[in-house]
Amino acid sequence: MMNNLYFDLDALRRGNFFILKSEIRTEEGDPYELEEWIDRGGNAAVFKGRQRITGDECAVKFLMNSGWRNTKRFLREIKLLKSMHGDHITQYYGAGRVTIRHNKASRDQRMPFVVMELADCNLQDVIREEGPLSYERYAGQFRGLASALASLHDRAVHRDIKPENILVAGERWLLSDYGLCTFVNPDEEDLTLEGQNVGPKFWLSPEAHNRRLGCRDEINAASDVFQLAAIFWYVATGRHPTGILTEDDWIGPKKLFSLLHRSLYHDFTKRPQDGQEFSADLVDALTQ
Fold first, then answer.
1. Domain ranges in the chain?
2. How does residue 116 score in pLDDT terms, banded at 50, 70 and 90?
3. Domain 4-116, what fold?
4. Is the dihedral of CA 43, 150, 142, 119 positive or negative?
5. Topology, domain 121-286
6. Prediction pTM value
């Protein structure tokens, strides 16, 4: 059982870590223990954990970089994850706060965490190891991910869809990591700073690229469609859909080319406008 939290292994080697001063118990009352570090993100670290009563494995994500903006974003991610359900959405198990102390500090502090379904790997790992996948392997997963995006778009825009954020849990691909979401509810404050670069640099929509150049493009639901379609192209071909695409660049079934090509248009108004439209169009294409 682990008693230290750290951002990554380099941080641990440098002697930069937090000491757990309390048990890991969710607001729902479930106790957990940590087994090993898995990965890190922008402001959080993920550990493999286990429910102490049932023995069930899980992933426990801790907010390592605090501050009001990061904390509010993390807590909103938990709220969103808790509200969403589906076979292709990461399952929420619980959340809470632990008491920790930095190993070089003298005061305790409270750190938020969320407990989720444990994945085997991410989609980037799969494609790097296996290359392009077969239609039989990805068709149902595409359908499930598009449905997950449709569900998300009832509440928020993801803005950070990339192969590393598509988790693989057994036979299911999961849309995950909602930390950069903007919310449909106008009462939810947009936490994006003026001029802040948003999104995964290798999977940016044209709108996100233009924002990095100083344009005032809005990243919207159709931007998520672009990112997910780009990943679908990558899964089927093993290559990034960069540049001017033609049907000669596509090696998957012909019935999918038109939709993916349209979903990758530079002009977002010509793409499916949200996950609901993209999901419906994908089902139509798959059933041809």
1. 4-116, 121-286
2. very high
3. Phosphorylase Kinase; domain 1 (3.30.200)
4. positive
5. Transferase(Phosphotransferase); domain 1 (1.10.510)
6. 0.94
